[in-house]
Amino acid sequence: MNTALFLIIGIPLIEIFLFIKIGSQIGAFNTVLLILTTAVAGVAYARYEGFNTLKSGLNQLVKNEIPVYEIISGATLAFAALLLILPGFATDLIGIMLVIPFTRKIILNKFIKKKTKNVKNNKDFIEGDYEDISDKDEKKF
Asked: Distance (Å, rounded) from C-alpha 3 to C-alpha 10?
């Protein structure tokens, strides 16, 4: 089954199931209030962490270093804010895990290790040496 199709169908089903289960325990009004509260608080905290990441990235640039982690972390925070805005408990849980710096580092490290392992095993490249011949051509004239 295609992963995108599974996500398009699976995520709303999980969210509906959680709405029904939690709504039956705490009531409909409290469920809606909880969803709105997590959205507002999550986006506010994602904004705060986003500014911290931006400040850290600027500090890296001042030191003449490439802010790779900060760029990836910023994109992750944008995705987390999107998940927090979407109504639902499962998306809120994933969004909160991506906003918190400790869990964000753990999740990003798992993805980075997985991707670097795939790159190391990739044999679609050719190694070689090169020689700059433009200097040799200029000496002839």
From this structure: 10
In whole angstroms, give the CA distance from residue 71 to residue 5.
29
Q: How far is CA 96 from CA 6, 7, 49, 92, in A?
A: 23, 19, 12, 6
CB distance 111 to 100 below 8 Å:
no
Alpha-carbon gap, residue 114 to 17, rounded angstroms: 31
Q: Which residue has the higher pLDDT, 126 or 9?
A: 9
Q: Where along the chain do its domains lie? A: 14-114
Alpha-carbon span 53 to 70, nearest angstrom: 6
C-alpha 100, offset from chain centre: 12
CB within 8 A of 83, min separation 6: which ones?
91, 92, 94, 95, 98
Which pTM value belongs to this model?
0.70
Query: Could you tell me if 83 and 121 are in contact, meaning their C-beta atoms sit under 8 angstroms apart?
Result: no
Contact 67, 86 (CB under 8 A): no
- Give 65-71 contacts, CB < 8 A, sequence gap 24+: 69/108
- Per-residue tokens: 44: 């506010």
DSSP conformation class of 79 = H
State the average pLDDT over residues 48-69: 88
